[in-house]
Amino acid sequence: MARPAHRLTMAALALAVGGATAALPTTPVHAESLTAASTATAPRPHPSSAAGGAEAGSQRPRNEAPVRRRLVGSWTTSADRITAALGGQTVRMVVRASIGGTGMRLRLSNVFGTAPVTFASVHVGVQAYGAEILTGTNRPVTFRTRTSVKVPPGQAVWSDPIPGRIAGGSALVVSFHLPGTVRGVTGHERAYSTTYLSDPGDHAAEESGEGFTYTSTQWYFLDRVAVEAGAATVGSVVAFGDSITDGAGQAVDANRRWTDYLRQRLADQSPSRRMGVLNAGIAGNRLLHPNVGPSGLSRFYRDALSQPGVRTVVVYEGINDIARGEYTSIKPLAYGYKRLIREAHARKVKVLVATLTPFYGWSTWTPEREEIRQRLNTWIRTSRAFDGVLDFDRAVRDPEFPEQLALSYDSGDHLHLSDAGRRALADAVNLRML
């Protein structure tokens, strides 16, 4: 799948940050010590989830310790090693917080790096438009009270809590200066969001966007945002999947992933039912084998179960295994799902599995692969192996020809969904199951 073309969106966003300073813990949370990041106040048992992530695979990190305050994930992206070279300049990225709260923390990851990376002059503000930051919102970020941090290869680091409150839905602008050149960048290939890159120099503290003369559609190093959510927030839901979850088919800066639509639905719920929505999709990803990014099996702990405050994971992955594989049985895929379920249930995390949506007309579709998809969907619907089933297939298929997407839900390539199709997925989620 080709990378999307860049398109700059200059729409001003009416979002704000509260100015009150919250009571925050005196001990910051850092991933070097791989601290745990959630304790229970939710209505159901809640696991202690690692806020860190020093392992590139799915193994649980060592030396975990409980956190004093309950953190809930507000934003994430699944990282991989991407082709990029950065250095001597400032990176400015825009990410959207799914829930608000106080004591926001950022996580910078060098999990896929091969050399230490120094981040200097890290700042976070609220987007006005483009690379511009709303006046008075750009705040310095510290790491153990220091304004710069060196992250070894294979590790990630959480910031100190940032004073003040952010609102759910805020478009956060994270900026940092890279004093040295970095190759083999830990990041996310298809952000579907504009990242701004400066000429040489440190422009992180500037609220103006004038110093940022280059753009990209990748995210670099930043992979998590967490907040100290109120007691009414029950936790976070992680959407674990491939390109359909990652956002393929939408315009750059549109924020029309199916998880964005789900966030909007949850924002309309009563405070006691609100949840963070975390997108852990990687375009091209497979459940059983590495393809684009590590396999779903190997990245499940790091990208889903270690998220702060995780309560539920929606697994919507496997179509790339079928569309690019030569399976004659659903047993390998069923085995993969069962492994994910065991890992999640061992940590008291709920697992919902979505049926796989049609791909008739896609270049690799064959009747044999369609039969595997149908048999796997039947197993998902009837096996009772999961905590619940989301029937995404039924939500977007053509009722007259169920092997293909309904015309209005097809982005045009017969695999990925239109904006209406991604909204239909979000509408198919029974919020009470989360």
Please give a quick description of this structure:
By secondary structure, the chain is of the alpha+beta class. Helix content is 18%, strand content 30%.
Structural key phrases:
eight-stranded antiparallel beta sheet; Rossmann fold; alpha+beta; six-stranded antiparallel beta sheet; 434 residues; 30% strand
Explain this structure to me?
This protein folds into 2 domains: 78-96 and 104-225; 230-433, SGNH hydrolase (Rossmann fold, 3-Layer(aba) Sandwich). It has helices at 243-246, 258-267, 296-305, 319-324, 331-346, 367-382, 392-396, 419-427; strands spanning 17-18, 72-76, 80-86, 89-96, 101-109, 117-129, 132-133, 139-140, 148-151, 156-158, 162-166, 171-178, 182-188, 195-200, 212-216, 219-220, 222-228, 236-241, 276-281, 310-316, 350-354, 388-390, 397-398, 401-405. The chain is 18% helix and 30% strand. The chain starts with 16 loop residues before the first strand and ends in a 7-residue tail after the last helix. The radius of gyration is 20 Å and the shape is globular. The strands form 5 sheets. Strands 4, 6, 7, 8, 9, 12, 14 and 15 form an 8-stranded antiparallel beta sheet that branches. Strands 1, 2, 5, 10, 11 and 17 form a 6-stranded antiparallel beta sheet that branches. Strand 23 (397-398) and strand 24 form a beta hairpin. The model is unreliable at 1-68 (pLDDT under 50). With 434 residues, the protein is an alpha+beta fold. 56% of the residues are buried.
